[in-house]
Structure formats: structure tokens, C-alpha cells
Amino acid sequence: MLHTFVALVEDKPGVLTRVASLFRRLNINIVSLTVGHSEKTGVSRMTIVSDASPTAGHRIMASLYKLENVLQVDDVGQAACVSRELALIKVAATPKTRSHIFELAEVFRARIVDLAPESLMIEITGVESKIEGLIQVLNESDDRILEISRTGRMVMRRGQHTSRVLDAMRVPSGESESEPIAEDDEAEITEEADLPQ
Amino acid sequence: MSEAKFAGTRLTGAEILWATLEGEGVREVFGYPGGAILPAYDALRKFPIRHILVRHEQGAVHMADGYARASGKVGVAVATSGPGATNMVTGIATAMMDSIPLLCVTGQVSSKVLGTDAFQEIDITGITLPVTKHNYLVTRAEDIAPVIREALLVARSGRPGPVLVDITKDAQQGSATYDFAASAPEPYRPHPMLRAEEDSVLKAAELIRSAKRPVILAGHGMIQSGARKQVLALAERLQIPVASTLLGLGGFPASHPLSLGMMGMHGEAWVNQAIQQSDLLIACGMRFDDRVTGSLATYAIYAKKIHIEIDPAEINKNVKVDVALIGDLAEVLETLLPHLAPREGESAWMREVNAMKGECSVRDIQNLPDTGHLYAAHVMNDLWHATHGKAIVVTDVGQHQMWEAQYYKHEDPRTLITSGGLGTMGFALPAAIGAKVACPEKEVWVIAGDGGFQMTAAELSTIAQENLDINIAVVNNGYLGMVRQWQEFFYEKNYESSPILSPDYVKLADAHGIPGVAVRTRGEVLPAVKAARERKGPFLINFLVEKEDSVYPMIAAGSALHEMIRRPGHNPLIETAQDV
After folding, report:
1. Which residues contact B171 (CB under 8 A, 6 or more apart)?
2. How many domains does chain B fold into?
3. Which of A190, B72, B400, B528 has its CA 20 to 30 A from that of A114?
4. CATH of the domain at B287
5. Does A117 reside within a domain?
6. How many domains does chain A have?
7. Are residues B499 and B389 in the same domain?
């Protein structure tokens, strides 16, 4: 099954290798891994999706913590969270064949971000199933996909705002917990219910 | 002290390295110089640190390892870049598998040429990534003091392990303002999953109270944590028998009536039987290694399991447990013990275990008539008697290692030094050097097979140069004994590449100015041991033992713990030794 971990790590050379090497050593495949800055200077946030046995979560998390550069790990498995992925898809299209792709993009709430005489580029954000849905529809309508670039999953728990970074670094945040935010407006409804699969 | 002497002054990186080590209390290092570490060696004479020149960098790490195991302090090894650093890898992996706190310092080519395949450049932080607890590349003089201090803290904190610090030549040659106090690391961040929650403690106490056939499994963690007092209290309060892992031997006194001895692949039959029949295993600082459990599907199926362990990643790794108490063993037991009321008198379970013991240990090895054959078991038994079980014994890997574990009864922690997890042949001789340097007042014995001894025999020269009072017992059967045993049992006696020629070890010792003697019969064992013990300085005994003897009992890899291969009846040697 897929496990999703959010790890806050020190922003130093070699830290990515250490994390990646851990999965290699456990013979676990990394499905996707995204890294970027967090809300705190010097701390990076990784979202790691890996395919491992259902019971492997504890061991992966415990092993991640054994890396000196790892500050905090969260196994977001069943937790309520917002999950997103960004994809850029380049599709072969001439002025004559463009219009139905525009329609598809509209349905999927994707955007056309580049237009060339023989191709166009779609930007789409959403859960993986939505992106895969668009790719599938493009394939089924005989549009030739030239390139796909996907960021991999990034997730954030819903509600209860406390800076996990500050928490990890043992800095009292001084903020009270905010009210749980109302359902993320369009997100889940659009993606899970409305869309053609 | 140099931290005061030099504080606030401008020093070279090399000087900062030694000043920091001195400030951290390091007085002995094991190493081998070379181009990229020469600036450090050039500065060494200004500091009160003893340097033991080794013959191979693998030896330097094993020595630091033996030093750490004997003393409980962090062992320090030094080498140059390239081949010096790669030679350390086996030693580092050995320490990693057995959770030994080490600091390995390597020289590196100048930062300006890093990544250019310069002469003797190697990516040692990359190579050692999976076999170190953590490692560092230092390219600036001002980073040396804080990194060394942090590295030592990481090495000895939590579950200990080896740490490598790779320092470029220009960092050693550069200068910086040295301030020991200001270089202090942040307090060690404990593993966030460390917890022995109140309800888990209560649940464990309830399981212990209601158990009818409990067994304590004492591992290396008992020694690392210094938890002898607490484990003794737990065992004695409820009359629970204690089985040890190989690395746990010495943690619990062998002569204690509740001590069972070693469990696992070559554990005594009654120990494994007791585990298989147990209804509660209390694992204390051990990790259910495959050499301890045999087949997992059939391992202690009637037993609930309590796992007390400092590394959360070990919980449910091999064996699913009912209660996990994560933390330092001594601390966890301190919170657990108040919940347990003492139980008086020998339990029915203990009587049952003792009955199994009597059934298995047929006769005493001491009472066997001298048939003219010399068995390794005789050697271990006699050595145990002669040294009253008080020597530090450093063993290599193979049959002799198992015989030592079976027949030498260790009373004290840190008196058996052996490579358990990685099973590194060639470990004994250099590790013994480290142990002797750490504990000069203690009697130190090397026990090595003829195979492993030849792997690192060059360190005899180190012993001679340092004139260390180390007694060396080579258990010489002309084979790679454990390989031969497996070939006998599982490969139809196809002794491919297991017979091994040895030099005349007595002559080899003599060539190093070390006296020695060959022993061929039982009667010669004790006089030879006496001669070795009486001599101040190194001494070697070449024990020419029975060639095709095997270690019994044995659990074939993957078999259940109670399915033991027993010594065939016609063999005159008994299977187990009973204390005399």
C-alpha cells in the first residue's frame, strides 16, 4: 500500500541522499518525493510517498527519525489532509484540433499555459486521480501526449494551525489553535464527485 | 587543560582537532598517517594524546571498537584519505551492527580539488553513509571544533554508533579562533518516539505478574545501558530465569542461579527449550536477531512479548510484541520495578528449567578421560578456570567464538568482546589491543581461529611495538572451522576451500620478539596458560585442536529454535559443560 510521510529536515547538502538511501536500504520504492522550503529558514519540507507493506509505516518513521538531519516526521496515512500534485502536460495539437482540448481543460479546471503551432501545454493541479483522469481522457481521444512532468504528491493536514516546524525545533509558537477551517471550498467536491473518470 | 590553555587563541585546524579531542577527554587514538592527514599528525606532539600506530586502518577501527567495548567510552580512529579511509569501512560496519560508539577521523584532499578525482581522493562520507550513525565533511578550520564535539555526542547518545568526520587538508592547515566552550553542541535531541507510557508500564507489570513461565532475554543493551542492577532486581524479585544473547554475555553474572546462558543458534538446548515453552518473554535491550530466533513462524509461539528497547525502529521489526517500552533499559526498569511485588522461593517454572538443564548436560567436560585428543572446548574450559572467569576475552568469529561463549562463563559486563552482528573475521587481535589500551590493569586474552587470525596477524607487530601485555590463543584446526561445519552438515562434506594452511605461529610470534608455545594435548593446556599469564608482555599459544570437531547444539538457519542438531552419540565429547 502507499504510505505518505511529511518530513521536516535540515536544509543542508546530502540530506536528500540520506533520506533516499534509507528507503533504498529498506528495499522500499519511493513513488514520489517532493522537497522545498518550509515556513522556517534552514528547514526543508519533504513529502515522501512510498509503496510498502501496511505494517511498514512505523518502522519507516522510526528509521527516518534516526537520521540526525531529520527534525520531524508525520505519517499522514489516514489523517484528514489536503493532497495536491501539479502536472505539466504537453499535447500535440494543431489549430484545427485544439478546440476539444480546450473543452477538456475546462472540465478538468486545468489551464492552457503555452500554445505553439503544433503543440500546447496544460497545467493541472489536483489529487493524483484527477491528473490521471485527464491523461486517460487525452489518450482515449487520440491526442498524442508529448511530455508529462509531475511534481509528485504534497500534503498538508487540515485544520489546527500550529507550526510543525516551530514545534519540531521546540520554539513556542505562542499562537492559539485556530478554528477548524471550513471544507476546502471547491477542492474535494470537484475532484472526487464531479469529474468524469 | 588545553581547552583553557588555548581558549580564544588562534590555532590551525589540525591543532583545533587535537585540542577539542583532548578537551573531550580523549587520551588514546589509533591511527595511520598519510598525505591528507599529515597536518594533523604534525600537530599531534603538542598534545597529551597517545597515538598507537596500527598496521592497517581496519585494525585502527577494530582497536577503537575494542577500546569502546571495554571502557564504555567513545573509541577514536584516525586515517588518511582514499585507501586509508576505505580500509576503515569493515571496521565501521562492525561497530554499526553492534552499536559501538566510535569517532573515525579521516583526512580529505583540499576543498579546492574536491570532486576532481585528485590523488587519494575518495567520497568516504558517501561510502560510509549506510554504515555510520552519522557522518560529516568539514572544509573549514572554524567548523572542526563544533563538528568534533557534536560527532562525539551523536556517537555516544541514544543507541550508540560510529560517526565519521572527514576533514579536508586545507581545513587542517587553515586557522581559526579556538573556543572549546563556545563549540558545545546543542543537547542531544532524543528520538521523538521514545516513550514508555504509564499504561504500557502497567500493562507490562500485569503481564509479568500473571506469567507462569517467564524468561528474560538479556541483550547488549543491558551492558550499554549499565542496567545490571535493574535486571538483577527484576529477575530476583520474581525468580525469572535470564537467557543472554551473544553480545549480552557478561551482562548478567553467569554463576547466578537464575542465569541460563546463551540462547540461539548455538545456545545450550535448555535455554532454547525454555524460550520455546515460555509464556512471557521480557526482551531487555536486544533485537531478535535471526541467530537468536531461528524460524520466526515457530518462535516462542506460546509467549507474550515485552520489548524494552532504546531504538523504536527495532519494535515489531522481526518479532511482533505485545508491549513495547521504548527508552533506556535502566530507566525503563526503574519505572517498572515499583509495580512488581517480590515472590518468594523457587518457582515451579524454575524447577522445570533446571530439570531440562540436568537432562542436557550429560557429564562434566572436566571429568572426561584424557584420550590424547585436544578439543577447543577443553581449551575454553581450562582458560575459564585459570582466569577465574575474570579476564577480558576478545574473540574472533567462527567455531571458537561459539565455544568460548559456551564454555567461558563471564561474570562481568564488558569482559566478552566479540563481533556479533557483522561477524567480522580478523576482529579479535586488533580489538584486543584496543581493550588492553583502555584497561591496562585487566588481563586480556585473544581467542582466534587460524583463519581469522591470519586476516589481521600484521597487528602482532603493533602489539610488539607497544609491548602490550596481551595473551593470544590461536585455536588451530587447519580449517575455516565454521565453514567446514556447514559443509559437513549442509553440503555433503564437500570441503571446498575450507582447509587452510597456517604458518608456524610460534615462529611467527618469535619473529616479532613475542614468546610462544604450541599445545597439542590436554595436559599441556594449563601450564601454557600459566606461562602466558605470568609473563609481563605478549605471549602466544598455538592450540592444535581436533580438526573436524563441530559446535553443538546447532539450529540450522531457518529451523525452529527447538529443532537442534545434537552431537552424535558416539563422539566422546559431551555437548555442554556444567560448572564445576
Report:
1. B13, B111, B138, B139, B140, B141, B143, B144
2. 3
3. A190
4. 3.40.50.1220
5. yes
6. 2
7. yes
Residue span of the structural domain in which B115 resides: 2-183
The per-residue pLDDT for A77 is 79
Cβ contact (<8 Å) for B193 and A59? no
Place of cell 509505516: A57
Q: Which residues of A touch B317 (CB under 8 A)?
A: 59
Task: Mark yes or no for CB contact A68/B126 under 8 Å.
Answer: no
Q: What is the largest CA-CA distance in chain B?
A: 75
H or E element: which one contains B144? helix B141-156
> Mind listing the pLDDT tens digit for each residue in B125-179?
999 999 999 999 999 999 999 999 999 999 999 999 999 999 999 999 999 999 9
pLDDT tens sequence across B290-329: 999 999 999 999 999 999 999 999 999 999 999 999 999 9
Q: Which residue of A has its CA nearest to B192?
A: A65
**A74 and A6 share one domain:** yes
Torsion of CA A168, A173, A177, A180, to 10 degrees: -60
Mutate to test the interface with B, among A66, A73, A75, A169 (most CBs of B within 10 A): A66
Residues A88 and A74 occupy one common structural domain:
no
SS (H, E, C) B480-500: CHHHHHHHHHHCCCCCCCCEC
- Looking at the fold, whether B324 and B262 belong to one and the same domain comes out as yes
Q: Using the 8-state DSSP alphabet, how is residue A67 labeled?
A: S
| Within a domain: B554 | no
Residue B471 belongs to what H/E stretch? strand B470-476
Range of the domain at A91: 82-150
- Whether A89 contacts A121, CB under 8 Å: yes
Closest to A7 measured CA to CA, from A47, A54, A37, A49: A47
Shared domain for B46 and B143, answered yes or no, is: yes
Same domain, A19 and A34: yes
Q: Retrieve residue B475's grid coordinates.
A: 585455536
Digit-coded pLDDT (tens) for B80-132: 999 999 999 999 999 999 999 999 999 999 999 999 999 999 999 999 999 99
**pLDDT band at B385, cuts 50/70/90?**
very high
Q: Closest Cα of chain A to B137: distance in Å?
A: 10
Q: Is B436 a catalytic residue?
A: no
Q: CB within 8 A of A150, min separation 6: which ones?
A: A32, A85, A86, A87, A131
Coil, strand or helix at B274: helix
Of B357, B389, B412, the position where a domain reaches its end is B357
Q: Tens digits of per-residue pLDDT, B416-441?
A: 999 999 999 999 999 999 999 999 99
Which one is catalytic: B169, B304, B305, B357?
B169
Cβ <8 Å between A65 and B312 = yes
Looking at the domain assignment, is residue B479 inside a domain?
A: yes
Nearest to A58 among B133, B311, B316 (CB): B316
pLDDT greater than 60 at residue B353:
yes
Phi, psi of B174 (to 5 degrees): -70, 175
In angstroms, the CA B351 to CA B361 distance is 15
φ, ψ of residue B263 to 5 degrees: the values are -100, 175
Query: A-B interface: how many C-beta pairs under 8 angstroms?
Result: 38
Beta bridge partners of residue B308, listed in sequence order = B284, B325
Co-location of B339 and B388 in the same domain: no
Q: Are residues B172 and B203 in the same domain?
A: no
Handedness of CA B122, B128, B132, B134 (dihedral sign): positive
Write down which residue in A79, A113, A134 finishes a domain: A79
